[in-house]
Amino acid sequence: MNIGLLLLMVVGGVAGVFSTLYILISLPYMIIRKIYRKARFGISLMD
């Protein structure tokens, strides 16, 4: 394998890992935050 293809594979793999971690962390955080704001302040879940 040449170095360019190997570098491209590494960069793509790192981008995939970071995007997956972002989704796994941000989605539950937003759901919990919206439920907390609804319970505490009476704010709509759609805001």
Topology:
Layout lengths: L2 H39 L6
Describe the structure.
It is a single chain. This protein is mainly α. It has one domain. About 85% of the residues lie in helices and about 0% in strands. It is rod-shaped and about 60 Å long. The model has no long low-confidence stretch (mean pLDDT about 95).
Brief digest:
The chain has 47 residues and is an all-alpha fold. It has one helix and no strands.
Stretches where pLDDT falls below 50 for ≥5 residues? Answer: none
Q: In oligomeric terms, what are we looking at?
A: single chain
Radius of gyration: 19 Å
Coarse shape: rod-shaped
Structural class: mainly alpha
Q: Strand percentage, roughly?
A: under 5%
- Tally of helical runs: 1
Mean pLDDT: 94
Helix percentage range: over 70%
Beta-strand segment tally: 0
**The number of domains:** 1
Series of secondary-structure elements, N-terminal to C-terminal: H
**Distance, first to last CA:** 50 Å
Main sheet properties: none
